[in-house]
Amino acid sequence: FPTRRSSDLIRQIKEGIKQEVAQIKEHIQDKQAQDSQHMDDLVRNIAVLKVDLEKARHDSLTDGLTGAMNRLAFDTSIRERVNRSAIVWKPFALLMMDVDNFKQVNDRYGHAVGDRVLLALVEMAKSLTRKDDFIARYGGEEFAIILPETSFRQAMKKAQLLCKSIAKTDYKIDGAEPDEKLCFTVSIGVSILHQADSVESVIHRADKAM
Question: Is residue 141 flagged as an active site residue?
Fold first, then answer.
């Protein structure tokens, strides 16, 4: 039979083990809480990085002045569409659009007004096209609009609508005479993708038509 002294010793050992187990459990819980917090922080950081990455990607493909897609975005998009159509036929129409006598606008009113003309042009184009249509600044005062799954006749109607709507719109000029307004016109060339087309050929036809 165990003596009183040995019983006390066993009880002390048990208490010691209990304390150690409790400390281990507490340490594990603290570690789990820290890991959980660390994981939450990682998830939040990843989400922020994704937003930043998407914004950087969007900015790299967007024209800073007009908000339209830029030349890089256009070149990438039209090449992908032509390559895809070689596998699964999905024709599209292309409008090449240029502001008439744009140099005269800059010379007479200044480049700030010229910039606003380009911005107004893009806003008008966006209001008259579909969500899936692709509007890009091709260079300078020239723009390109890709109309997916659009016939030549439909594209011509869209081009005529753009020309008429832009020509009949007057814009107030800040700092000028109160009644002085600016209006401008555009020229648009239309082409539609043919099965034998390359990127260069479909652009060339629209550019030549313009």
Answer: yes
Choosing from 141, 142, 180, 200, the catalytic residue is 141
**Beta strands across the sheet bearing 92-99:** 134-139, 142-148, 92-99, 186-192
Q: Which residue has the higher pLDDT, 188 or 54?
A: 188
Amino acid at 169: T
For 92, the 3-state DSSP assignment is strand
pLDDT at 176 exceeding the cut of 70: no
Show Cβ contacts of residue 20 under 8 Å, excluding neighbours closer than 6 positions: none
Other beta carbons within 10 angstroms of residue 67's beta carbon come to: 13
Q: Output the pTM of the full model.
A: 0.74
Structure tokens at 52: 């930043």
Taking the C-alpha atoms of residue 92 and residue 103, their distance in angstroms, rounded to an integer, is 31
Q: How confident is the model at residue 2 (pLDDT cuts 50, 70, 90)?
A: low
